[in-house]
Design a protein that fits this description.
With 261 residues, the chain is an alpha/beta fold. It folds into two domains: 145 residues, Rossmann fold (3-Layer(aba) Sandwich); 85 residues, no CATH class. The protein is 55% helix and 8% strand. A six-stranded parallel sheet has the order 1-6-5-2-3-4. Strand 5, helix 11 and strand 6 form a beta-alpha-beta unit. Helix 2 packs parallel to helix 4. The longest helix is centred in the N-terminal third of the chain and has 23 residues. It is elongated. The N and C termini lie close together (7 Å). The model has no long low-confidence stretch (mean pLDDT 91).
């Protein structure tokens, strides 16, 4: 059976790992990567403090293909949201089709209403971005900026800079296909069937299952996450011997469940 470790006990947990292992490694979930780089997130300061602890204790931190993909996609939507809203500003010199401007304004009003009511991230969904894109011409036309030019001007360089932030924070991309990282993986291979098994047993998403599958097959001792499902899955699996480090209030929630021992 795996463990969930509250943020408040992470320091002592890592010290205990260091006592038995010469090196400590962790996988960072997407929500942790997003909180580190998006200050609007309510847990930004808490996650930043935890990351400082990991760095000061020499913990190697990694992003898997799943977490990195979701992280990049989160910032893709964030950058598109912010810049699409900016070009509809009355002082913007960028000209876009009236239909596109109206679609952006309607969508902005909708997400701000949900943010005010539910506290959700004020970011366009992928479906909303696709609806806005349909109101643009692909190329610039009649003095109006086209979608392709918009992406070149407002997305390309900023998104590439976002990716570099992971490297600057010492977050390494973890891949079983990189020969240089062979020592980071155990003899237990990454099997698709194992990830599917986690989904079948606990109902978690395939993305979450693949993160846990990578944790199981690597020398990483824990995942850092704010995802309830990851904690649920490790507690539900009696064969799991690793941990998820999570916020204190989320760890307390698991007291109400009757996990097998």
């Amino acid at each position: 059976m795996g463990r969930v470790i509250p943020f408040s006990e992470a320091s002592s947990y890592i010290d205990a790992l260091h006592a038995s292992d010469s090196a400590v490694h962790a996988i960072l979930d997407t929500n942790i990567l997003a909180a580190l780089t998006y200050e609007v997130k309510p847990n930004h300061e808490t996650v930043t403090d935890l990351m400082f602890q990991l760095e000061s204790k020499g913990v190697g931190v990694f992003a898997t293909v799943n977490t990195k993909q979701e992280f990049i996609d989160f910032h893709r939507r964030l950058l598109l949201t912010e810049n699409l809203i900016d070009v509809t500003d009355a002082h913007s010199k960028v000209k876009i089709h009236r239909e596109a401007k109206q679609q952006i304004q309607r969508t902005h009003a909708s997400i701000m209403s949900k943010h005010k009511t539910h506290g959700s991230d004020p970011i366009f969904s992928d479906t909303q971005i696709k609806d806005i894109k349909r109101e643009f011409s692909a190329g610039s036309h009649s003095g109006h900026m086209g979608w392709l030019t918009f992406c070149t001007v407002y997305l390309r360089s900023q998104l590439l800079d976002i990716e570099l932030r992971l490297e600057h924070r010492g977050i390494t991309y973890l891949s079983p296909n990189d020969p240089a990282q062979a020592s980071l993986f155990t003899a237990s291979p990454l099997r698709w069937s194992d990830a599917v098994g986690l989904v079948c047993n606990t109902g978690i998403s395939m993305t979450d299952a693949m993160i846990l599958n990578c944790l199981r097959s690597s020398i990483c001792q824990f995942v850092v996450s704010t995802d309830f499902d990851l904690g649920f899955a490790v507690l539900a699996d009696t064969t799991f011997n690793k941990a998820v480090v999570m916020p204190d209030d989320m760890c307390r929630e698991f007291r109400h469940y009757h996990f097998p021992s």
